[in-house]
Design brief:
Radius of gyration: 32 Å
Largest sheet: none
Number of helices: 3
Length: 120
């Protein structure tokens, strides 16, 4: 209940206007804390899920040596392609169009060979 009388002549039971303004701030702070806590819990669950998936994959790989070797070589090839792409971007950034064209053709040839191997 708000009073329209001057502050010195308030009726009993009347609250000043500023008390109503403080309540939403408290609610905002508590909702912010709840949101932050929920985000932290979500991050923890995601980490647990990733760990479970990694464990499951490792269990599948440990049972088959060929699969383990394939995954190792695949990850190494993926790293190599990422480095090659980085070099291509660096050459393009320098403005050497001729060399960038040669590197792009080489990467496309590698992609074609990889695609043919997968289709067999």
């Amino acid at each position: 209940m708000l009073c329209k009388r001057p502050a010195g002549k308030r009726r009993p039971g009347c609250r000043p206007k500023w008390t109503k303004l403080r309540r939403p701030r408290k609610r905002q702070r508590s909702s912010g804390r709840k949101r932050k806590k929920a985000e932290e819990e979500l991050a923890a669950v995601r980490q647990q899920l990733e760990a479970a998936q990694q464990t499951e994959r490792q269990a599948a790989i440990s049972g088959d040596k060929d699969l383990a070797l394939f995954e190792l070589l695949f990850s190494q090839g993926n790293e190599a392609v990422n480095k090659l792409h980085g070099l291509l971007l660096k050459v393009r950034g320098r403005g050497d169009i001729e060399l960038a064209g040669k590197l792009q053709k080489a990467l496309l040839a590698l992609a074609d060979v990889t695609r043919r191997c997968a289709e067999e």
